[in-house]
Amino acid sequence: MMTVPKPTFDDVRDLLLTDVAIRIQLSPTLHRLAVERMDTLAEWLDREGSPLSGCVQLLYPQGSMAVNATIASCRERDEFDIDVIAQLRLPRGAKAQAVLDVLYAAIKGEKGSRYHSMTKRNTRCVTIQYAEMHLDVTPAELVVNRDPRTSFIFHHRPEEPHLPGRRILANPFGFADWFNSITPRDVAYGEFFEKRAREADPLLAKAAETEEVPDQIPAFLKPPAVVALQLIKRNRNIEYENRAGRRPPSVMLAKLIAESGSATGLPFAELLYQSRRLLKTFEAHQRQGALIHVINPRCEEDVFTDRWPADLSEQGVYTNDLRFFVAQLERLEHTADLESIAEVFSRLFGEGPTKAVIAEFADRAGDSIAKGRFRSGPGRGRADLAGSSIITGSAMSASASSRSAPRHTFYGS
Amino acid sequence: MAPNDVARLSAEQQIERMQALYPGFAVLYATPWLILWRGELQPLGRPYEVQVLYCAISMPLAAIDRFRPHVEIVQPLLARRPTAPEVPIPHIFPNPVFPHRPRLCLYRDAEWAPELYIADTILLWTIEWLVAYECWRTTGLWLAGGHGTERDEISHRERRAQARRG
Fold first, then answer.
1. What pTM was computed for the model?
2. Residues of A in contact with B154 (CB under 8 A)
3. How confident is the model at residue A185 (pLDDT cuts 50, 70, 90)?
4. Nearest by Cα to B70 from B38, B43, B41, B110
């Protein structure tokens, strides 16, 4: 029987994009910690004496945590937003202000208790601030006779206590379910990504010495489209870091990327494809003088673009960002030396993660050459990155046609 | 190339082996005493046009040593790092004929001999040199070892340690 060789992902752009995505995302260790913190919070809300004791039906991730696309919220600090829905049993007709206030009180607890000094009430959620992440806990009330977990969430500005606030129909669970079911899986790339993410997380290896760590973490078996989403969000975060006002919502980007389908199975081509599609969509709206309108496919009342864009000017700013993003990637589309890749990635995704992944690549490549392990193929001499021990990953092995060089010493000054 | 030396590979043998492994390398000029190849290598994401000259006679004015393959990068031209223009490109030596196309220093004298195929040695070393060069252009560090580098010292230490272990 003929065996189909496993893809090796040895295009340097794919490798470095993957590594940048791994550096900006929630690591496997922090992912485990976030899940543990959600479990702890569920117990805390239901504790004896809690104003919500017996009222918490379910606590589940929403947003980027539910589609495995969590990334650091800004360039300077590795801080992650973890969005959680607290599905509550509430008295009939509960008001937005009351619901948000009671959740705030239940989490904050008494002076000296675990969350007391870490809790903040916001317009639609209560935030628990940790050193490396924050949990945004959104209270929700289940709506019967709708798609599973369609819920009301609550909107009330704490700085305007005299205004009544409102209930908003939403279905973040349904959206995550739709996103995860519609985004094509690429088994080979998913395994490659997961393995590299684990290898890049020294704390996970340390944890494995003393506790049971699963052989594979399903949340990290990412399709290229999710990696593209993470990188596009990262670029948005960088572009909007010093801009006032709202930024394009992550959930809108997730919807637009998921419905475009995964075209390629490889991250660079996928990122270019997805960003071109986004640009095309936004340019068409700008030309028509229309604001983009994106809804939750599992709940048409759940409008993802209800707070952004406010006007064509806001939309135009992001359209220009996308135009620049695509133009930069196109510089690397046909030929790309390491220097150009570093320049483009630094500009689009930040200097910190780019420098780190380039330095690691250069070190591994140099080590491989210096130790006589470097392998290249015939023809155009393409580097066999897996066979040269420059990259590791699932079932990565040397290409049958590549070979290493006899020992030699670069001479000269 | 040298009928009196049976160990030395002939021009035909060198050309044949190059054709088999790197068919994109065209022979621009060939006589029993000189071969000039030009072709493209793309170890990472960028192609490089590479010229290899192998000559049975020395040409001092052109800094050509007999029976020594000479490798030049034709396109894109090698360049110093824009952020550190005072730092020379590592592991090259001057080319008096085309000064903007320095030749690559790929090996110590004893590491290559005319009994070896250029396609099995010089081409592989050129590919490694190009990878190291791209990394150097990007990071400012030549991490692939070589004479006078930290990694060369390490590999010497390793070799000595291996020799001691027997």
1. 0.91
2. 370
3. confident
4. B38
Which of B44, B141, B146 lies nearest to residue A410, judging by beta carbons? B146
Domain count, chain A: 2
C-alpha angle B145/B147/B153, rounded to 5°?
65
Mutate to test the interface with A, among B139, B156, B159 (most CBs of A within 10 A): B139
Choice between A7 and A285, residue whose per-residue pLDDT is larger: A285
The domain that holds A87 is classified in CATH as: 3.30.460
Dihedral of the alpha carbons of A283, A285, A287, A290, in degrees to the nearest 10: -160
Would the ipTM clear 0.85, i.e. be above it? Answer: yes
Is B156 near chain A, with CB under 8 Å?
no
Each residue of A220-272: pLDDT tens digit? 999 999 999 999 999 999 999 999 999 999 999 999 999 987 667 889 999 99
Question: CA A195 → CA A5, A24, A216, A359, distances in Å?
Answer: 18, 16, 8, 20
Task: Find chain B residues with C-beta within 8 A of A380's C-beta.
Answer: 22, 24, 40-42, 47
What count of CB pairs under 8 Å joins A to B? 161
> Of A341, A357, A385, which marks where a domain is finished?
A341
Residue type for A338, please? L
